[in-house]
Amino acid sequence: MIFGHKIENVAGTQLLEAMLWYESKRSGLGDELYLCFEEGLNSICRNPFFEDRYKGLRVYNIHRFPYQIIYSIEVETIMVVAFFHAKRNPEIWKSK
Fold this sequence. Notes:
This protein is of the alpha+beta class. It has one domain (4-94): YaeB-like fold (2-Layer Sandwich). The protein is 41% helix and 26% strand. Strand 3 and strand 4 form a beta hairpin. The protein is globular, with a radius of gyration of 13 Å.
């Protein structure tokens, strides 16, 4: 079974901010981050049962960048609730 997905506004904003930051460091790097995010999201949709770390919220570490896709499984839909730097305090995104 392949799941559909929905990206919450907060997660979309976090992804965009990270892309802009990386793009400011090197042209094209923001696009590379997005491609890694998209690859991770596709992996999650094919097999969503990654680590259940936060009481129903699961975590997927994307490749090449220190970011995590935080998501829940809602029936047949993956709900992306955060796109977060793996070295930051998770209490920050939980509060949003």
